[in-house]
Design a protein that fits this description.
CATH class of one domain in chain A: Mainly Alpha
CATH topology of one domain in chain A: MetI-like fold
Oligomer: heterodimer
Number of helices of chain B: 14
Largest interface: A-B, 52 and 45 residues
Shape of chain A: globular
Number of strands of chain B: 0
Number of helices of chain A: 14
Order of helices and strands of chain B: HHHHHHHHHHHHHH
Order of helices and strands of chain A: HHHHEEHHHHHHHHHH
Radius of gyration of chain A: 24 Å
CATH superfamily of one domain in chain A: MetI-like
Strand content of chain B: under 5%
Helix content of chain B: over 70%
CATH architecture of one domain in chain A: Orthogonal Bundle
Amino acid sequence: MLVYTVRRVLGAIPVLLLASVLTFVLIDLSGDPLADLRVMQPPPDPEVIQLQSERLYLDRSMPERYWLWMTGVGGNGDIGLLQGKFGPSTQSATYDIGANIAERLGVTLRLVGAAMVFALGLAILTGVVSAMRQYSKLDYTLTFVGFLALAMPTFWFAGIVQQAGVSFNELVGTQFFATVGDGTYQAQGLSPWGRFTNALAYMTLPTIVLMLTSFASWSRYQRTSMLEVLNSDYVRLARAKGLPNRVVVRRHALRTALIPLTTVVAVGMAAIIDGTVLTERVFQWRGLGEFFIQAVTANDSFALMAWLMLSGTTVILANLIADLLYGVLDPRIRYE
Amino acid sequence: MSENRAPDTVRKTAADGVGGVERTQLQMITRRFLRHRPAMISLALLIVIVLFAFVGPYLWTWDHLVHREVPPSVPPNADHPLGTTTAGNDVLGQLMRGAQQTLKVAFTVSVLGTVVGSLWGATAGYYGGRVDSLMMRVVDVFMIVPLLVMVAAIAGSVRGGTTWWAVALIIAAFSWAQIARVVRGVVLSLREQEFVEAARAAGASPGWIIVRHLLPNAAGPIIVAATLLVAVAILLEAGMSFLSFGIQLPDISLGQMIGDARTAASTRPWLFYPPGVLLVIICLTINFIGDGLRDALDPRQTMERR
């Protein structure tokens, strides 16, 4: 197991490297960080452009820039992923990409964490119920809801949910649902209980939005995997032994049926990251999604690359953890 | 129908013995698909939407652009059945154009992604070994990329406006990996079969074997994956446009319409709901058609998605 773990971790390194090359080449080729400066009216001094391009390392060749970006050796001390430095930003000379990401990470993680927990819980519940009542009205309804959720653009659904929150507030005459902002500022100086209700007010709607897509696809997987297990020989044996249905479902079937979900959840990380960008945009959270949009708008290559590497690493790590967990959960898998 | 092919005659007599009618593979698939009610309803609906998007603009008075004759911000009425925008666009005209651009992008992505993905996957599967593991590593990287974020980053960096085919190209460049994975899986099992060995023995080149022998035999899974890719592309394009990194004004797409109307959901609901509903219906129909095709082409597979 230890050997396998080490081998898998080492195996993730080439994937990460390949991802970094791809990210770098694509971002480097697709945009010009100085585009805004060049079209400025009145035209800036050529010297300013020269200085900026030196600051952003644009005067070097592409392989050299990649080397700089990864190691920082030969740079001005503000670059080098391996040293934990993300490079200079186009947004301003003092804009610190790393500090900005760190500041926003908490906001985004809060949303992603809540959405994942609720999506997973609900997906398991509906998946199992669907499987146990296969071809019932309930099963068909849940299946259709799943289909609908998968066909729904996240941001449109977000708009509807936001609207529903506003209508609810108006109807009941409260200000319960906050539909704009992430509530970090409002939470300052509140009691623990106050912070809890504040989080509830700000997080409920975005969490519902972000969990929808993941919930839909995970619940489909859970249904399939539960059906497969329910029709297997050992479950039939458990029933034949005369065990009560409750015990068969909970102790025998469900435990096995949960195993495939680990992989599915890991693969779903990428979709959640996509969803975060859209959800944060609609609810105007100052999280990593907004950071991303800012970086694209400002042609901030290094910020964009830092962001893409961070999300890429997250997905790769999630897959790695899922693979390792799989071995722990499923005793049939042996690595020797 | 052919006297010199023994298996056919045998099958015919066997079928006659139980009073059945002989059907070719294609007929059987068509029959199964035609009997798949959700898929058939979806297909009819999709044809209507395609007509709406591509023929509609020729029949309707207003296009998607701003016109001085269009009164701004008017709710649905007789002259403008879906109302107008604040700038003075007819929403019905926008909806037709938006659906058209969305569908053009989606179908282009599906074709490009399928061609690239199938060739990539088939090559990896056919050669196996080192080539396979190297090529599939690349696929792995593309599979873990958050698609929307990636295409938005690229499209947003390209300055000077992105046209619909540029958007399609960018989306296709990142969404072929799923197809490659599916095709490789099929080809891995196909390449061990006798007809491939026979072709090789007859001196066929690897390229010929891949294109003429392996890919046609993988057609079923490829068609299904290509259909589902259409839905993926539609949602990606919509997301890009919503973040305003997709098709640029004055051209319009459904995602962009939703993005523009985002803050107007309560005050001018006629701007917000129609493009979203249309988008959902298009995606739903395509997903149902994909399911119908899967059931028709490969009855052993279940309703399992992806």
